[in-house]
């Protein structure tokens, strides 16, 4: 096992990695921007190195500065967390070139799955179901119309690079098609430096369900069941749970087997997530593979009792996934609530500021992952995620009741957060019934997320 690990990230995920390393007697190095000098991960790590000014491109995306910090401190490995450089194949390769272990996927893994069109082709060849769509990238408007003639409306135009909803447009009619195509390509080019797009049939009333996998390049791959991530705003998740209240046991098993097939087809290394879109008939299709640890990984940890960060470290250190499928058991029901520094009544507008009081909930079945504390100044430069509330209970009904109790206990004064929004979701009869799709907010909660007049 490693003696020292540098964490190329910030916030709650940096703290999460520090805690796993500490339990394995691994020393940690925190890197930070000048805006994060007082952040909790800097205080908790054994060593810390400032790598630049507040702008992410000059700090947390500065590959040379991060590699230099690792060499300066003698770190043998780098954990990228999620976001920033976690799915950057150049960074993964740069680590290898400097004899530093990248605690994550191989450069080739990242490259093959990072390009969504390439990922579709790879999955199709592996026998994993994909959504009907274009056979490759759309080169021009004539190609676009040819695909539409074949698969029909509605369709979704997607950027082959990036994520987070950028370069993505849903099209229902011919009149919308060309304007949406031009907007998607322009937006993708601006956001990712790559304007290439492809087209898929748009699945109506979709559920977003993902399978957690652990894998090594030698064909040892296992799954750790699913997470239902259907409650989203602007294609970004807000609430995740497991088991899914929607899919059947047979569909769950089939999806899990296809996720393993996906990992083995690319000789995947580390922890990863295979994401599927599921229609109202429980027919599922591959959407993408995230070649990193997920924000919502604690859902799986609470459900199975497996520490996914420790497993990442183990696979990175030995190049072997030593956990057998037979060791994976699930217990009860788990939900994760993303507590963002945002105002839900103003379309989830980010609300940076100073936390006056931070009092997380406790009691049975409650876990809070956060970098917040009283007096902490939330910088405006980064993602608005402040905390994750993870709730476990024996069944879904008990989990909802426990989550309400915990959210009502959670006190964060000085800023607006998504806590009131989550309480409204838990009280909604459609959520209680498990009738949750990716349009849940638009369908049922729009009065709570539009700017008040």
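Sequence proposed for the structure above (453 residues):
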């Amino acid at each position: 096992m490693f003696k020292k690990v540098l964490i190329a990230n910030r916030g709650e995920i940096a703290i999460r990695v520090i805690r796993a390393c500490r339990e394995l007697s691994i020393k940690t190095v925190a890197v930070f921007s000048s805006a994060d000098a007082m952040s909790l991960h800097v205080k908790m790590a054994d060593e810390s190195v400032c790598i630049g000014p507040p702008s992410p491109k000059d700090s947390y995306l500065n590959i040379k500065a991060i590699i230099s910090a690792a060499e300066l401190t003698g770190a043998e490995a780098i954990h990228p967390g999620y976001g920033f450089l976690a799915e950057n194949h150049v960074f993964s390769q740069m680590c290898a070139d400097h004899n530093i272990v990248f605690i994550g996927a191989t450069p080739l893994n990242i490259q093959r799955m990072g390009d969504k069109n390439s990922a579709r082709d790879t999955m199709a060849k592996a026998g994993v179901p994909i959504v009907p769509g274009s056979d490759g990238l759309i080169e021009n408007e004539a190609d676009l119309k040819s695909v539409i003639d074949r698969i029909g409306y509605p369709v979704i135009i997607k950027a082959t690079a990036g994520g987070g909803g950028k370069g993505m447009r849903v099209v229902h009619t011919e009149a919308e098609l060309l304007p949406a195509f031009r907007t998607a390509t322009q937006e993708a080019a601006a956001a990712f430096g790559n304007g290439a797009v492809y087209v898929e049939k748009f699945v109506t009333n979709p559920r977003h369900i993902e399978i957690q996998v652990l894998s090594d390049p030698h064909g040892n791959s296992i799954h750790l069941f699913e997470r239902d991530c259907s409650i989203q705003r602007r294609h970004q998740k807000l609430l995740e749970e497991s088991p899914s209240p929607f899919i059947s046991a047979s569909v769950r098993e089939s999806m899990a087997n296809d996720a393993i097939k996906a990992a083995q087809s690319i000789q995947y290394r580390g922890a990863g997530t295979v994401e599927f879109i599921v229609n109202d008939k429980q027919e599922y299709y591959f959407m993408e593979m995230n070649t990193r640890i997920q924000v919502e990984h604690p859902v799986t940890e609470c459900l199975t009792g497996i520490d996914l960060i420790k497993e990442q470290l183990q696979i990175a250190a030995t190049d072997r996934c030593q956990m057998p499928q037979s060791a994976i058991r699930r217990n009860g029901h788990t939900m994760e609530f993303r507590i963002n520094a945002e105002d839900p009544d103003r379309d989830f507008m980010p609300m940076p500021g100073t936390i006056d009081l931070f009092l997380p909930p406790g009691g049975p079945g409650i876990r809070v992952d956060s970098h917040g504390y009283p007096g902490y100044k939330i910088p405006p430069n980064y993602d608005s995620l402040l905390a994750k509330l993870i709730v476990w209970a024996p069944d879904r009904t008990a989990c909802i009741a426990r989550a309400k109790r915990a959210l009502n206990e959670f006190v964060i004064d000085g800023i607006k957060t998504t806590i009131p929004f989550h309480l409204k979701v838990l009280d909604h009869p459609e959520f209680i019934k498990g009738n949750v799709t990716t349009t849940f907010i638009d369908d049922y909660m729009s009065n709570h997320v539009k700017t008040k007049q």
